[in-house]
Amino acid sequence: MARVELDQAAPDFVLADHQGRQVSLSDYSGKKHVLLVFNRTFA
Q: CA distances (Å), 31 to each of 11, 25, 27, 35, in order?
């Protein structure tokens, strides 16, 4: 995956939310702020 530079739009991607529904970055197009949280579990 190519690196995103400053002042460049992030590429669209799709992830599953906590209920298993597909959510894409483009779903939030036009919103002022988008917060992404990537939780990791450590065993």
A: 15, 10, 9, 11
Say what the pTM is: 0.59
- Which tokens sit at 2? 């190519």
Give the integer Cα–Cα distance in Å for 39 and 43: 13
C-beta separation of 36 from 28 below 8 A: no
Q: Which tokens hold the place of 31? A: 């919103």
Sequence-ordered list of residues with C-beta below 8 angstroms from that of 17, at least 6 positions apart, any chain? 23
Q: Residue 27: what residue type?
A: D
Phi first, then psi: give them for residue 24, nearest 5 degrees: -115, 155
Report pLDDT digits (tens) over 5-25. Answer: 888 888 889 988 889 999 999
